[in-house]
Every structure is written in C-alpha cells, then in structure tokens.
Specification:
single chain; about 350 residues; 3-stranded antiparallel sheet
C-alpha cells in the first residue's frame, strides 16, 4: 500500500512541475489533462503526506517515552502517543478507501429519467415529487439542473421527466438512485381515506461525450413537432420539439424544453448517447448475472430500492436496511445520510471483493 502511495505522490509532484512548464501552459489540451489528473490525485496525496508526518511524530514520541522523564512529562508523551496512534489508524482506513478501484464515471454529469409506473395519476404525482427532491438536493451540492423533456398529467404530475444535473461528482452520488421507488400514502384522488401503494422508476445515466459514442447521420431519423403541456395542449406553434430515433438499436430520445429546434436536437442526442451506453452496460451485466451482486444493486429499473411511507414519515432503503424517520426532510432534498450510507456499503463491498 505504501509503495502505491509513494508512486502516487511522485506523480502528483511531477504534475506540479509540468503545470508550471510554459509549454504545457500554452497547450490547453495538456493543461486540462494534467490539471484533472492532479485534481484526482490530490485527496490521496494529502492523506499520504499527513500519514507520513503522523508516523514520524509517533516514532519520535515513542523514542522520547523510553527516555528518563518525570511523571508529568511521561503522561503528556503517553497522551500524544495515544492521539497520534488513533489518527494514524484513521488515515490508514481513509487511504484504503482512496485506493479502491474508482468508477470512471463518478465525476461525470448525469441524465436522470423518472417515470410514473404502477398507480396511474398517483404515480405521476410522486414522479414529480422525486424530481423536486433531486433538484433540491442538487441545489445543496451547487449543481445545475436543466430540464430536457417532460410529459405532464392533468394534476401536475409527471408521466415522464428527463433532466440533466451538471456538477462534479454528480454520478458518484446519484448512481445509487436507479430503480423502483415505492410510495405508500393516501392519494389526493382517494375519497375513502385508504392508503395506496404506487411506484415510480428512476434511471440515472452518466453523460456520454460525442467522442465516446459516435452516432452517424445515416443511422438516425429526426422528427419535429410542437411542444405540448398537460393534456396535450400546444404551448407553442413552431415545430421546435425534436424526436431522434437511432435506427440500428431502435432507441429513441425526445427533447422539447429548448428554445430552438437545433438546441432540442443537441439535447436529444445527449440523451440518446446516454441510453445507448446504458443499454450496452445492462447487456454486459446480464452476461455475468450469476456472479455476486453489489449490496447497492445493479441499477435495474425493476429493482425495488426504496419505500417512502407518508403516514409513518418513514423512508426505508431496502438494499442496506436503512430506515429514517424524517420523510419531509428527505423529500426536501436532505439525502446526504442515505447517499453516504450507500457509498459506505459500496466501498465495503469492493473491499471485500478485493480481499477475496
């Protein structure tokens, strides 16, 4: 482990030299690549630097402990050794996590799709509330949310909504949200006061750059139509909304929230690329379906991941057995405890696999 850390530290310091090189400073591509690489290494470098400092201080304190000291000084040295030993153990655990294999998509922006599933209008209303929950969480992270496409029902719910969240680490935190979200409550449409169970599905896909997936003009069909709102009522009279079909795969993407046809086509292609890669990922995972699955699941939309029980103000994540009695806070974007718990579960799962 220490050899790996020293190699990372050497590379970090080499990158610092390269970033001061005038030739690199005048080359935007290399400057961007080296800056990103150094940024990715920074947390490990800082942890290793502190680990070396703490280790040296601990060795010095142990040497001092062996010398002739009065009682007061001996007690002070003992307290310092206990403190440094505790910090060294903390850093060792932190470093183990930092050295785990990293998902290459973790720093990417995400495209999120939410659909009302079982439950009709109630499922669509809950889909809207999930959209609101994610946008409020994005606000707490300083991320930007961009609506791409939506299909409303007459009650203001979303039969389907697609949006992009832009910000560093968006995928690393939201990748656990893919799956079926179940809501238990008395619907606004229920006159008898009975609790119903409905579901909405969420899919979180990392943004895919053009260079990662090449889509040829000959392989797509582009249709235009007027944007529409609830009930199908036209909200503009120009055909600015765009639907793009990828003929070889049959995958389709629509965008109507942009101001122009070109803007909507560009957004639809973003969604299309993400969907193509997502399908490929699911096909690859299906090949290894017999292998041990992660505790936090596969990201399959059919997998029930969480229940939101309104009468009990309870949120339960079924993958890790986490239950919180603060539903209102969660629905208002306070998701950090859930996401942190899922991240820890994933890290523990990866560490277990690494050891085996």
């Amino acid at each position: 482990m220490l050899d790996r850390l020293q190699a990372l530290a050497d590379r970090y310091e080499k990158l610092s030299e390269l970033l001061c090189d005038p030739d690199v400073a005048s080359d935007p591509k290399r400057l961007r690549e080296y800056s990103k690489e150094q940024s990715d290494l920074q947390q490990s470098y800082e942890a290793y630097t502190e680990y070396k400092q703490v280790s040296e201080q601990l060795d010095d304190a142990k040497i001092m402990q062996g010398e002739k000291l009065d009682d007061e000084m001996r007690e002070m040295v003992k307290m310092e050794i206990d403190e440094l030993s505790g910090r060294k153990e903390e850093l060792e655990e932190q470093i183990k996590i930092l050295l785990l294999p990293k998902d290459p998509n973790d720093d990417k922006n995400v495209i999120v799709e939410i659909r009302g599933a079982a439950g009709g209008d109630e499922a669509a209303l809950f889909a809207y509330e999930l959209y609101r929950m994610y946008t409020k969480f994005a606000d707490t992270q300083g991320w930007r949310v961009e609506l791409m496409d939506f299909n409303e029902n007459d009650l203001g719910g979303f039969k389907e909504v697609i949006f992009m969240i832009t910000g560093k680490g968006a995928y690393s935190k939201l990748k656990f949200e893919s799956g079926a979200h179940r809501v238990q409550r008395i619907p606004v449409t229920e006159s008898g006061g009975r609790i119903h169970t409905s579901t909405s599905t969420v899919s979180v896909m990392p943004e895919v750059e053009e260079v990662e997936v090449e889509i040829f003009d000959k392989d797509i069909r582009v249709d235009t139509f007027c944007s529409s709102g609830a009930g199908g009522q036209s909200v503009n009279t120009t055909k600015s909304a765009v639907r793009v079909l990828h003929v070889p795969t049959g995958i389709m993407a629509t965008c109507q929230d942009g101001k122009s046809q070109n803007e909507n086509k560009a957004k639809a292609l973003q969604v299309l690329r993400a969907r193509i890669v997502d399908v490929q990922r699911q096909e690859e995972e299906a090949k290894y379906a017999g292998e041990r699955k992660s505790k936090v699941g596969t990201g399959d939309r059919s997998e029930r991941i969480r229940t939101y029980n309104f009468p009990q103000s309870r949120v339960t994540d079924h993958r890790i057995g986490l239950t919180l009695h603060k539903l209102d806070s969660v629905m208002n974007g306070d998701m950090e405890e859930i996401i942190s718990s899922l991240t820890i579960a994933e890290q523990a799962d990866i560490m277990e696999r690494e050891l085996n």
